[in-house]
Design a protein that fits this description.
single chain, alpha+beta, 206 residues, GyrI-like_CCH_Lin2189-like, Multidrug-efflux Transporter 1 Regulator Bmrr, Chain A, six-stranded antiparallel β-barrel, GyrI-like
Length: 206
Amino acid sequence: MKFEWRKQEKALYLPKAKPMELTVPKQNFYTISGKGDPNDSQFGEETAALYAMSYGIRMMPKNGTTPEGYFEYTVYPLEGIWTLSDEAVADGRAFDKSDLVYKIMIRQPDFVTEELALANIEKISKKKSNPNNQNVKFETIEDGKCVQMLHVGSYDDEFKSFEVMQHYCEEHQLSRTTFAHKEIYLSDPRKVAPEKMKTVLRYFVE
């Protein structure tokens, strides 16, 4: 039976369009850290590197290698942790996408060990040239206690959902542990109209 995160992990990836609390355990990811406007080509190339590595793991059995514990699965969605540069915060200047600092990532199944992940990076880098391949890392990340909700609409309208989440936190005596937040992209912006895009927004709280 094929493991599909949309079906088996709904609590993590398919919340409703209203705030909810959850605790997210440690998960393994391929990651790339960067800064600047995500509309620039650099961001697209970084995303492409992450997907190349992720599909490299997914397709291993078809390429002659079946890792221990391997199972059929759907590749996880792109995620990103976003914040602003220290300079932008210190200056208190108006929001500008060029000031964004991010870590984008794609989760990997539990059977993926560090040894397997790094060997895959080396193999894929030889097959698919991308200057960002050298920046891909394998990391274990624990989001911990969070408040999340589904945002439907343009990325530029996310502030409306953030206001709802902030109000929820205040009502339930929760405070954010960091200015950074996470986004999980359920829609492909190349195929879905902006007003219909679905994005999970997540605050880290205590």
